[in-house]
């Protein structure tokens, strides 16, 4: 195959993928296929996985959404403990502490809030949450993460001996009805696909 | 709705460019197909650059994690700017190859002759 026909073939493929991603509901269908189903059950702790925080101390959209989801679940009585994860950004603000302050302001009692700091990966969060909760006898978790992240996170907690239920907080994506929004979903899918491949390769 | 609006914009500007090219700039309508094929070549090359850049990035992130105490996020390679830069790399590589194989030189020579005379 010549250089020209090979690169043209790749180019045609790229254009087809772009058109299908931006102008058809394919990414939304893939999102629904890859996400973890909601399975809310009463648990002994509600664990909200980390997102990100800016240097100015502002939670990212996903982090804020997950935090509010965790607080809502707590206030509905689905768990007596609210575990908020989130590392510091360089020497800046700590995500878990900002989340904890928000939870306090929204009426969660201080005695019910635990923070997990220092984990930079989902696997690291699973390790630290396990070290924090297993000595307390906690075995049933209600996990809060975005829908795609949840599918990767659930097995990590299950393998550490927790009976884990999913309370994802990313359903807003079902309304992605413009090309730019669908491209954002596709990028999110690619990111999660990459992360799953990595986790599978290194055996997490 | 927004899809139809966006595609209509592109269709309108494409028709405008076609008439401008054929009527004012003296371009041949038949060569439009060849131009489309070359555009696809550039996209293909940009895709190769994108995949290569991502692969190098993944290897560098994993190596940094394994060999040092630094933590780099794999999500860094998912930055959209990497694909824009890959497109620029693809364009440059494509035109480099064109000039070297004479195609670009012929285009340039024709443009120069037109300019002079």
Largest sheet: number of strands, sense, barrel closure of chain A = 5 strands, parallel
Number of strands of chain A: 5
Going by helix content, strand content and strand pairing, the class of chain A is: alpha/beta
Total tally of structural domains of chain A: 2
Q: Radius of gyration of chain B, Cα only, in angstroms?
A: 21 Å
CATH architecture of the largest domain in chain A: 3-Layer(aba) Sandwich
Name the largest protein-protein interface in this structure: A-B, 23 and 25 residues
Total number of beta strands of chain B: 0
Beta-strand content estimate of chain A: 5-15%
Estimate percent helicity of chain A: 40-55%
Radius of gyration of chain A: 19 Å
Q: Examine the coordinates and then state which fold CATH places here, giving the name of the CATH topology of the largest domain in chain A.
A: Rossmann fold
Low-confidence stretches of chain A: none
Poorly predicted ranges of chain B: none
Specify the biggest β-sheet of chain B: none
Mean pLDDT of chain A: 91
Features:
heterodimer; A: 204 residues; alpha/beta; Rossmann fold; 2 domains; 10% strand; B: 117 residues; mainly alpha; 4 helices; elongated
What does this protein look like?
The complex is a heterodimer of chains A (204) and B (117). Chain A has helices at 3-23, 26-34, 61-75, 95-105, 122-133, 147-159, 179-202, and strands at residues 45-48, 82-85, 113-116, 140-144, 163-166. Chain A has 204 residues and is of the alpha/beta class. Chain A folds into 2 domains: 3-34 and 173-202; 45-169, Rossmann fold (3-Layer(aba) Sandwich). In chain A, helix 6 (147-159) links the parallel strand 4 (140-144) and strand 5. The model of chain A has no long low-confidence stretch (mean pLDDT 91). Helices cover 82% and strands 0% of the residues of chain B. Chain A binds chain B through residues 3-4, 6-15, 23, 120, 177-179, 187, 190-191, 194-195, 198, and chain B through 2-3, 6-7, 37, 39-48, 58, 62, 71, 73-75, 77-78, 80, 97.
